[in-house]
Amino acid sequence: MRNVAIVGIGHSKFGKRTDVDLAELAFESIKAAIEDSGAEKKDIQNVTVGSAGGWYEENLPAVIVNEYAGFKDVGTMRVEAACASGSAAVRSAYLSIASGEADVTMAVGIEKMTEVDTLTAVELMGRSGSYLWEFENYGMTFPAYYALYAVAHMNRYGTSEEDMARVAVKAHHYGAMNPLAQFQKEITLEKALSSQVVSWPLKLYDACPITDGSAAVVLASEEMAKKLSDTPIWIKGIGFSSDSANLSKRGDYVGLSATVDASRKAYAAAKISPTDVDVATCHDCFTIAELMAYEDLGFCAKGEGGKLIREGQTEVGGKIPVNLDGGLKAKGHPVGATGVSMTVEISKQLRGEAERGRQAPIKNGVGLVHNVGGTGHYCYVTVLSRSK
Amino acid sequence: MAARDEPPTLHSKRSLNLRFNIPISKTSRFWDSLAQGKFVTTKCADCGKVSFPPQADCPNCMGGNVEWVELGTDAELLTFTFVQITPTSFVDHDPYVVAIGRLKEGVNVLAWIEGADPAKLKPGEKLRIESRKDPKGSAYYVFVKA
Known about the structure:
The complex is a heterodimer.
Chain A: E1 4-11, H1 22-37, E2 46-50, H2 61-69, E3 75-79, H3 85-98, E4 104-112, H4 118-126, H5 131-135, H6 142-157, H7 161-175, H8 189-193, E5 197-200, E6 202-203, E7 212-221, H9 222-228, E8 233-242, H10 257-270, E9 279-281, H11 287-296, H12 305-310, H13 327-331, H14 338-351, E10 366-373, E11 378-385
Parallel strand pairs in A: 2-3, 2-4, 9-10
Antiparallel strand pairs in A: 1-7, 1-8, 4-7, 5-6, 8-11, 10-11
Helix pairs in contact in A: 1-2, 3-14, 7-11
Chain B: H1 28-35, E1 40-44, E2 50-51, E3 66-70, E4 74-83, E5 96-103, E6 108-112, E7 126-133, E8 139-145
Antiparallel strand pairs in B: 1-2, 1-3, 4-5, 4-7, 5-6, 7-8
């Protein structure tokens, strides 16, 4: 396998983007990523588009996005791994270069979720389990799925609603420093704890919002990266895994086995251990998901996620800073864009280009992207590094 | 017409209603039995793997030689949630409690708990599965406190 570097990053403003359509929104990131890379459009040999879809009017987003940006005769596809579609797109773009097929590729993540009303979006997400056995008669929602994990985690390890709320407070703290975040406002613990119950014990401030957004990365082979970039960020390893769609088929509800498996594979591929990671994005679609991710990724022992956040170890200056871009909670979670957005964020962190107050100290030059699809249906873990 | 605080937006005139026709011929015995108050599933006659939900092909040995077995209705509560924001097709429903319970056969089942006070529920509690019929006569199953 050949070495592959990220040479260009682009990221749209996240939020309720009623000012742009799907292609216009994707273009914001595509243009920025190409400009940042130093490559020309004609150098890009294929474009993989990560998008879950279903909430916007277009059925074949990859070609819509390419057409608007003026890509013609490029190999393309839309890939789907639910909320990890963006990481699936990065993996596809990575493999194309690693295998020797191409020298410069692009991964785009895009989602436009606010073109349908909120409860319809809730329904589309709720139908993302095992439809007949979980939705038809029982009306499951995404918050409900993660609430089942939260209750089990609270019961087994004594994790509290306050521990979960601390994740939201941290997310909003860093989101306030990220000009591209959906919510750029600090919140208090009291505000999080007293917010409306969505699916007990999860409240409004335990949940990520419904978001429109896009992100893009340009990847290059070692030879091309040397020509294009002074600050290439190398993809050192990708691990991916899966679990059952039907939640009742899982053994327990205190962690995501897809995360455990994907991270072990990624650590092995990159030849690192969790303690080597300087900065990470964890998939915090719900606050409980971030606490479980700390544990499942090996940042702390099982059951100690609550302790890690209470001690401030996942803030700047802590043992392992997590989600310094505001996370899904404050930055927003445009499903298919999220994995690419996380890849952009970790590249920025490793380049030392994050905004004031939210830059992690970089010691080993290693960052980690943790991106979950569904309720642990899919998981992608990508290790990035400043050194080849 | 666009709302006043909204940027220029085309509100599409074309709506799309989706209602899926889901084939259940290979597992209809589950639904038929449920209508008679029996909770059954499939067990592989070759390797002994019990599956829930029932499936016609064994996910363990991939054999197609499955038989129907009756499951007990006693369950232990593993976890639950009280759903207060419901999806659009459930907006007419009162908020509901969803639980996952483990049967002694080792399989887990996800269903509503009927008539339970969510503030008093604790994992580990004993539940029982009962069958119900919705207003259109379709059978479904719920947990009740044992």
